[in-house]
BTB domain-containing protein (Suillus subaureus), 276 residues
Amino acid sequence: MVETESIPGATLVNMMPVNDHTLFRIHSWTLKTTSGWFRSLFSMPQQSPPNHPETINLDEDSHTLESLLLMICGLSINPLTSYDEVDALLFAAEKYEMPGPVSLIRALIMTPPLLDQPLRLYAAATRCGWVEEAKQASAQSLALNIYAPEHQPILQKLRTGAVLDLINLHRDRREGIRKQLNEQPFVTGSTVASCPRCRWWIDHHTWRELKYKVVMEMDIRPLGDTVVDVGLTNWPEAIACWDAKCPNTECPHVLYDKVETSRLIRDCIDDLPKTI
């Protein structure tokens, strides 16, 4: 701790949180050099006697205030384990115009366990204008069904543009795979075609059902991993498609190449947009 006497005009300040009577004592010099809000406050005429610590009552709880003061003093901080803590700290740091704590929080949210909560990360990043963090969060959100009821409270707190960007990313992946599955080299065109070997009439209904299943799965989980890692092997629609043969009992032709079709679908998913 820097001695008060070594800094002209520096005094001790008592800071009291809103939820209890805990006192945090800190040099006014530290507050003035790390906070625009306190710099302005201490530029006003002070009522307290010169050597008597002034007490400032703040709106933050003791846990938030302690973490904030540890950050501006350059001391070891308490680990951040939830976004409730992050949001409270960010709000306080922005309120008191403290860029140092904001930069620390920006680094910490990109580490576990905070990194495992993409929508909360996205909310914090878009509110603060952190572009790279928002992109990372949007990529991680592809493993979620953002339309599920449990995610609505978070989405409702986002600004309109941020919500639309996220919805558009999820929609573009779903519609992107739908468009590609209806184009070459996949089976396209008429619902009725002929067997390339015996020219017997065939109906590609098993392929249409598999396409529909893929698109619906991408709507629920746009990442696509459940499609390529599990679905194309285990779904009833996939099994029926790979087992489909020419209806001519004298023709052994298998209608769809499982290995090649699965590879093409994987490539299509890999080509879809990955971030906002």
